[in-house]
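Batch job 17 of 40 flagged for manual review because the log was empty.
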Amino acid sequence: MNRKLIRTTLADVKARREQAQQHRPNGAAQSGMGQPRPGQPPPSSSQMRKRQPPATETHAEIYYYKKQIDAHTPMVLVLEDGEEIEGTIEWYDRGALKINRRSAPNLLILKRNIKYIFKAEERVSQDRVEDPEPHVVES
C-alpha cells in the first residue's frame, strides 16, 4: 500500500485566513491586537512596546560605603558650610552616616549636609606634591 503525504502550501493558509475574516460579522482579525479604527493612524512601534524606565538605584553608593567600612578607610567629609570632618565610616543608612573619630566624639551626620567625601590619604598626597617653599630664580 502506498501512502501519500499531503502538505498545505502558504497560499492555501493565506486563502483560508482571508475567507475566515470575510465570514466574521465585523471583519476584524482574531489576533491579540485589534485592527485600527477608520480615521486613526496605525500605532507606532513605541506605542506597541513600551520601554522600561532605567533603574532608580544602581547600588554604587552602597557598594562604596561597604568597601570603606570593611577596610576602615580614613575618610574626609566636607560639609555644605565648608567644615571638614575626618574619621572612618562605622555604618550608614538612607539618610545618615555614623563617623568614628580618634580624637573627638563620634558623629551622626545627615547626608543632605555633606557636600562631598574623599579618602584622607588623597588629601595627604596632594599636600606632599605642593612645595611649601617657592623656588627663587636668580638672574
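Reviewer: the log was empty due to a logging misconfiguration, but the result itself is present. The first strand starts at residue 74 and ends at 79. Unflagging and moving on to job 18.
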